[in-house]
Structure formats: C-alpha cells, structure tokens
Amino acid sequence: MRKFLTAVVVIPLALIFIIFAVANRHFVTVSFDPFNSTTPLIAATLPLFVVIITSAILGVIAGGMATWLRQGRWRRAARQHEADARHVRAELADLRAASSRDDAQRRPAPAQLGFYGPNGRDKQGATL
After folding, report:
1. What is the pLDDT of residues 44-103, one digit of tens each?
2. How far apart are CA 64 and CA 54, in angstroms?
3. 90-124 burial: b if 16+ Cβ within 10 Å, else e
4. Which residues pair with 88 in a beta bridge?
5. Which among 6, 11, 31, 111 counts the fewest CB atoms within 10 Å?
6. CA angle centred on 56, ends 65 and 7, rounded to 5°
7. 58 φ, ψ to 5°?
8. What are phi and psi of 38, to 5 degrees?
C-alpha cells in the first residue's frame, strides 16, 4: 500500500517538474551584485526552471531547519522525561527485588500453610 501511495504522489510530481522544465527553458541571469546591475560582479546565467526549483529546495531546507530549531525545547523535555522514566523503572525494579526478598523471609514454611493456603479457602473464598 505504501509503494502504491508513493507512486501516486511521486509520478504526478515528477511529471509536473518535467513539464515545468520543458516550458521554462529560456535562460535568465541571476545577479548577486545589488550595486551594479549592468555588469554585475557576481552573476550566473541559468535556465529559469533551475532557478525556481533550486529556490524551492532552499526554501524547504530553510523551513525544515527553522522547525527543527523551534522544536528544541520539546526534544529536550522528551529526553528529560525519558531519563526520569529510566530512573523510576530502575528504582521500581530495586523495590520489587527488595520486596520479593522480604516476602520470602516473612512467608511461613510451606508445611504450615496447609493444603489450601494460609486462609483455608479456595479461589472463590469458600471455606474448606
């Protein structure tokens, strides 16, 4: 199912990019010199679709980085909660181990319990 959904999304997206690239093949000059527009010091002449797709990719990367940075406090809180949970699990295991040792010391010998346990009752509570 996942491969099917991927194909349903990727194939139309690839077709849209191909059609866009074929329709926008003319060259444009991208200048990085704001002071000299006639003969820029830093400029690149590229097809229009390369400029647009590259700027879209850079926008996605910038948005992902901004989201990742804003979620830092939630990741930090999750790490802290995980550490607390590990500490509590270890403490619980220690308490259970101590409790089982104490129970083994407090239990009467099996010969004193009788056949039906310490209360002389079965599982439903009926007197035997």
Report:
1. 899 998 898 899 899 999 999 999 999 999 999 999 999 999 999 999 999 998 888 876
2. 15
3. eeeeeeeeeeeeeeeeeeeeeeeeeeeeeeeeeee
4. none
5. 111
6. 95
7. -65, -35
8. -80, -45
pLDDT tens, position by position, 96-114: 988 888 766 766 555 555 5
**Which residues, at least 6 apart from 124, have a Cβ–Cβ distance to it below 8 Å?**
none
Secondary structure element (H or E) that encloses residue 26, with its range = none
DSSP secondary structure code for residue 32 in this structure = -
- State CA 95 to chain mean position distance: 33
Instruction: Retrieve residue 2's tokens.
Output: 């996942």
Q: What is the pTM of this model?
A: 0.55
**Alpha carbon of residue 40 to chain centroid:** 45
Other beta carbons within 10 angstroms of residue 49's beta carbon come to 19
Per DSSP, what are the bridge partners of residue 28?
Answer: 46
